[in-house]
Design a protein that fits this description.
Layout (H helix, E strand, L loop, with lengths): L1 H32 L4 H20 L7 H6 L2 H13 L4 H20 L26 H9 L7 H16 L3 H5 L6 E2 L4 E5 L5 E5 L2 H15 L20 H12 L10 H14 L4 H8 L4 H4 L3 H15 L5
Length: 318
Amino acid sequence: MVGFFFSQILRSLFITLLVYMLLLSFFDYLKYEKNYSSHTLQAYQRDLEQLRIFLEKSGIDLNKPSDIKQLNHKDLREWALELVEKDQASSTLKRKLSSIRTFFHYVQREGHISYNPAEKIQLPKQEKKLPTFLKPDETRFLFEEIDFPNDFEGVRDRCILEILYGCGIRRSELLSLSDEDIDMYAQQIKVIGKGSKERIVPFGKVVKASIEAYFYEKSQLPEADKSCFIVRKNGHSAYPKLLYNVVNKWISKVSSLNQKGPHTLRHTYATHMLDEGADLNAIKELLGHKSLASTQVYTHNSISKLKKIYKQAHPKAD
C-alpha cells in the first residue's frame, strides 16, 4: 500500500514536471523562435496564469496533461465571457485570447493535444484609436521657445525630446542605445527594434547639435556608462519611467493632450512627415513597422486635413 501511494506521488510529480517543462519550452519558443520581447513574454505569462486560476475553479488543472486534453472551446469561451463582464478593454481581451491561442497551438504542435480548443474563440474587433500628436505650432514652441536649463539634466532632456521627435524611435529603443550606436559623421542611429530587428534611422543637423551638447555634458560626469546612451546624473542608465516623466514634463508646457508620453512624439514624427508629403512606405521603414497597416493609421489625420482644405476652398463643398 505504501508503495502504491509512493508511486502515485512520483507520478503526480512527473506530470507536473512534464507540463512545467512544456511551459518552459513554450516560452523558449516565443523568445528564440518568435523573437518576442521580454515585455511580451511577461504578458503571456500573466495571461496563462489568469487562465490557470479560472480553470482551477471549474475543476480543470492546467498542470495535468489529461485535463488539457479534455479542454474544449466552451471552457475557454466561459473565461472570455468573464473577461468581458469585467469590462476588459477589447485590445486587452484580444491580446489575452491571442496568447492562449498561441499556447494551445504550440501544445498541439508538440503532440500533446489533437486540436486547438482556442481556435473556435472569435477575437473581438479592436477599436482603432487615432494617435495623439502635437500640432506644428506646439512642436515649434517646444523646441524654439522653451528654455531648457543649461546643465546636464536640461541638456539631456532636450536631447531626449529631439531624438524622439527627430527620429521617431520608441522609448525602449532609445533606452537600449549605446554611445556606439550613434554615428555622428553619417548622422544616423542604429536601432534594435521589435523582434530584434535592426534598422538605421537618420537625423538632421538640429538633432546632431543636441546630441553633441549632450555628449559633452555626459563626458563631464565622473562615471558615465557608455554602454547606455541616455544616463542619469550619477552616470547610471536611465529607466522607462524617467523617460516618460521627462517627456510628460516638457510636453505639458505646450499642450493639453491627455497622453504626453514618448509615444506621442513618435506619433508626431510620423504625422508631420506624412503631412509634408513623405512616402508611407518610407515612414513604415523608419518607424520599424512590420506591416503597412500599422502605419496607415496616420493617414486618417492627413485625410481629415485634406477634407478641411476642400471644404474651405471648393465652391461646391457644402
